[in-house]
Amino acid sequence: MNSRSKRSLFFLLIALSGLFGCREKSLISGEEGQHKYSIYILGKDGKEYLLETNQLDSGRLTPDRDGAELNTREMDRSVMVKNGYYYYLNRKKTSLIKYAIKEHQLQEIQSMPLAQFSIENYQWLGGDTLLLTGLANPDFKQVRYTMIQTNAMKPIRAGNMEIPVPTGRFDNMSVGFVKRQGAQLLLGYTYHQQIGVSNYTTSDTTYITTLNYPEMTAVKTVKDTRSTYPGGVNTVQTSAFQDAQGDFYFMDCPGIALGNRPELSTAIMRINKNSTVADPHYFFNLSSAIGNHAYGMWSVGADKAIVRAERKDLFKGLGDHYSTPHFEFYLVDVKNNQVLQKLALPLDKGTRRECVLLKDNIAYISVNSSSEGNYIWKYDLKTAALTKGMQLAGNTDFILRIDKLR
Predict the structure, then answer these.
(1) How far apart are CA 363 and CA 368, in angstroms?
(2) Of 17, 159, 170, 292, which alpha carbon lies 20 to 30 A from 259's?
(3) What percent of the chain has pLDDT over 70?
(4) Could you tell me the superkingdom of the organism this chain comes from (predicted)?
């Protein structure tokens, strides 16, 4: 190659570099604080990052260049995202803190004291009112709540919920879902038994208590022994939703990664509109339909949902459950108890993740693939077409969550 050719190639590479650089920059450009989506990344070196972007359809981002590196003493993935802000319970500071990304850094905006509280569930009750439901620590026996006006980060009211505390061999509990039903709240939960330093088991029963709202006094409690571990900690992964007709669907998750009662069935259950008990005639047995346990469920409209199910033949136990690619995604019809399609996606890794968003009949699904890389895939609900969207590259090891910022 002569010197003129080399020089031409040199400038061509510079031009292409600039073109692709602008293309990637356009994903995160725009007025700060006005981005549409956030992506939470765990890096290969153990560092964690938050990235904000205007779209998920294409392009390539790297967390160390395009994101804000997080101080993991300040925040982890159990974060609540709304209207451009991030809300996180900092236990060391015993405060609920409201953050925003500014100048590629996570910056504290406001805070309010919140001590001896472990969040199990959050619900936006309209406007800027946030209801947090959780357990009093350090013993995790008493169900507590706090209601917050997030614009001012001021408590509205707080106290105990009238939920029976664990007794006998069951020494702790978990709250799986909270649903407002007019002047009442429905709370789904179960009880656990610690049987070793890193081992536990779960009651065979799903409990649903109806509470007067906002007094939080008990009206009644019903038991359902068809499965156990309703929902999950929804700051980490979604497992319940209300459809357009007002019916409420929740997943019971007895697999080893949550309930540790793998002999029971993962199932979708339903509380009909204006009812306070699980429909005794409805039980969508996912374990039977798919052949495996599942741990997450996201509504995609029109009586359909995407569920994330493990492949029990591909992992050895809890020790490699998070790191081994063995998760599959299915489209299901919750109204008619049908598995419609196994999505032709690479095997995913990461035990629990917030990994599905819906926009304009496109389901965006983040997948951590050891063979194909870390991508946000696009699933067209009208045509069933699957295509790759944005790639999370560079230092990315896991996409832990994707969220709508506004």
Answers:
(1) 16
(2) 159
(3) 92
(4) Bacteria
